[in-house]
Amino acid sequence: MSRVVLVAGMCVTVPVMEHADYIGVDHGAVCCMRQGIAMRKAVGDFDSITKEEFEQLKQFCEVEKLPSHKNETDTEVAIEAAMQLGYEDIILYGGLGGRLDHELANVHLMIYRDLPLTLMNDTNILKVLHPGTYEVEKQHTYLSFLPLEDSCISEEGVAYPLKERVLKVTDIYPLSNEINGRIAKITVHYGRVLMMQCRDA
Fold first, then answer.
1. Which residues of 110-123 are buried (b: 16+ CB within 10 A; e: fewer)?
2. The dihedral of CA 124, 127, 131, 134: what is its sign?
3. 142 Cβ partners below 8 Å, 6+ apart?
4. Which of 28, 134, 191, 194 is most buried as measured by Cβ atoms within 10 A of its Cβ?
């Protein structure tokens, strides 16, 4: 499965992931450039970087400069570009934290656009799970779920296992579980859930 990492502005250090390409989003492209990480392209209106950084960026990779006044966010355009390039697994790194409206907009995109999108920063990983069985590798301390609609899930290999537990969309109790070993087995029998792996900052 082809993977791309979209690096947004709320990053300090860009993680190097094997078998992944990179697209820089606005200031995130500068973060990639400073670390010497090759990018397929850089996308944004670049109103958060200096003129000197923008000139350096144009020498470093292909740049798609967007107008400052537009209906779409820079991240939204970058996701569309990744889809057009044929990527099947899109990781948005640096899209959590900072301005709450941008953070919630990124979560909104993941939940309601049915995109192959994972949101990630240093302490959190968010992904929507549809019906199916998943082997989830432990990456942070806590494993949590929130139902996005009435759902039914099972959790195995965790501190507090669940078996075909029906969740109402208003339920919030499946938080702060922990994976016992390296892998947990998660089954979504029906519905959709937001899966989160988190650790304290």
1. beeeebbbbbbbbe
2. negative
3. 175, 176, 177, 178, 196, 197, 198, 199
4. 28
Task: Return the bridge partners of 10, or none.
Answer: none
Pairing relation of β-strands 124-129 and 193-198?
antiparallel
Q: In this structure, what token pair is assigned to residue 53?
A: 């950084």
Domains of the chain (ranges, CATH numbers): 1-121 (3.40.50.10240), 127-196 (2.60.120.320)
Contacts of 108 (CB under 8 A, 6+ apart): none
Structure tokens at 16: 């190097």
Q: Which residues are paired to 89 by β-bridges? A: 3
pLDDT tens digit at each of 201 positions of the chain: 699 999 998 888 888 898 999 999 999 999 999 999 999 999 999 988 899 999 999 999 999 999 988 888 899 999 999 999 999 999 999 989 888 998 999 999 999 988 899 999 999 999 999 999 999 999 999 999 999 999 999 999 999 999 999 999 999 999 999 999 999 999 999 999 999 999 987
**CA gap 37, 23 in Å, rounded:** 10
What are the C-alpha distances in Å from 135 to residues 5, 179, 181, 186?
Answer: 21, 11, 12, 6
User: pTM for the full model?
Assistant: 0.90
